[in-house]
């Protein structure tokens, strides 16, 4: 009697366990801008100020890991993998550095971006490296043999001798890698990286605008550059400019969303081009920062309306993306 009761309890428990695990691993069918975004473990994705690197048909999303139980002496970069841009598998923290340049207790590692060098076969991560007062203003570089392997710290420097805080990445259609960086004295730099991605080859453009969260996309013969104003963690109206060539001349910057929404409470981090069999979608990737509870910061991903020199971020809402087709569908509920 007792044994059969125990057996029933065990079976019920295992059943419940199974149920909760499958609920955790449930496949998502949509992207919900601004909502908690569960990874394959059911935990909110921690990839803030992030970048995306595509390797064959897999997207790797890197970002600032800001979960609550971290060692306060270390700075972490997480890595997630996905084939559909909707369901993300946590691949671990590929960076967990202790203060590599003796910058002091509240040192900063932000906005990681990973480039793949065809020349060396290495993955090269750039990030904003700083001290607590944001005066060090350099890029840091770390390197790995695998997209989701541990990255080893290599060096830090000021690109072409300039102050560098927020960074962005851009890969042109010919595969050439570019870094975008914000330089307080001068403005918004676009520089080409060397083939090994370990250094800057040359300056391509200097836009004399003070813009953070820089990102670029090439779409139907035009380059679109976006960025935010410098308002710390508070959102502001992000803006865009266009040019026929990365060298410019660049148009005036203009709003990419209704000004009063402050980019719907977000700040740009990347423009992702999803070129499929039927169409090409450009996604705006932004962060909705929660400075006091950074682990709960959200993501605003949304397909933009783009073409003929116009770029517009529509009112965010849930959507489905089909990576293979390059299409998205808005969900009206
Ligand atoms: C705005 C930047 O875009 C963020 O990455 C971060 O550096 C905050 N400023 C800090 O205030």
Automatic annotation (TrEMBL):
Stored SUPFAM superfamilies: Arabinanase/levansucrase/invertase
MF annotations from Gene Ontology: hydrolase activity, hydrolyzing O-glycosyl compounds
Biological processes per GO annotation: carbohydrate metabolic process
Protein origin, superkingdom: Bacteria
Signal sequence segment: 1-25
Keywords for the protein's UniProt record, in alphabetical order: Glycosidase, Hydrolase, Signal
One Pfam family here: Glyco_hydro_43
Residue ranges of the TM segments: none
Protein family membership: Belongs to the glycosyl hydrolase 43 family.
Protein name: Glycosyl hydrolase family 43
Organism in which the protein naturally occurs: Mucilaginibacter yixingensis
């Amino acid at each position: 009697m007792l044994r059969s009761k125990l057996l029933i309890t065990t079976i019920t428990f295992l059943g419940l366990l199974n149920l909760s695990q499958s609920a955790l691993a449930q496949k998502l069918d949509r992207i919900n801008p601004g909502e908690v975004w569960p990874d394959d473990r059911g935990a909110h994705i921690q990839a803030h100020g992030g970048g995306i690197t595509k390797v064959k048909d897999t997207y790797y999303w890197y970002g600032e890991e800001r979960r609550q139980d971290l060692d306060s002496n270390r700075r972490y970069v997480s890595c997630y993998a996905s084939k559909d841009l909707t369901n993300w598998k946590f691949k671990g923290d590929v960076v967990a550095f202790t203060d590599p340049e003796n910058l002091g207790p509240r040192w900063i590692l932000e906005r990681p971006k990973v480039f793949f060098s065809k020349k060396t076969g290495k993955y090269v991560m750039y990030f904003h490296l700083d001290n607590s007062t944001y005066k060090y203003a350099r890029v840091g570089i770390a390197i790995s043999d695998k997209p989701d392997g541990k990255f080893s710290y290599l060096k830090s420097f000021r690109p072409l001798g300039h102050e560098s805080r927020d960074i962005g990445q851009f890969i042109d259609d010919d595969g050439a890698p570019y870094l975008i960086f914000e330089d307080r004295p001068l403005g918004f730099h676009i520089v080409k990286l060397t083939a090994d991605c370990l250094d800057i080859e040359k300056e391509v453009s200097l836009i004399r605008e003070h813009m953070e969260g820089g990102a670029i996309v090439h779409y139907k013969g035009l380059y679109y550059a976006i960025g935010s104003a410098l308002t710390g963690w508070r959102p502001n109206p992000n803006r865009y400019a266009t040019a026929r060539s990365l060298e410019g001349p660049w148009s005036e910057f203009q709003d990419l969303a209704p000004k009063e929404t402050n980019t719907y409470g977000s700040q740009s981090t990347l423009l992702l081009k999803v070129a499929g069999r039927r169409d090409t979608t450009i996604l705006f990737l932004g962060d909705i920062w929660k400075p006091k509870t950074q682990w709960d910061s959200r993501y605003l991903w949304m397909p933009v309306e783009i073409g003929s020199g116009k770029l517009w971020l529509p009112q965010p809402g849930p959507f489905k993306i089909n990576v293979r087709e390059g299409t998205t569908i808005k969900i009206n509920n």
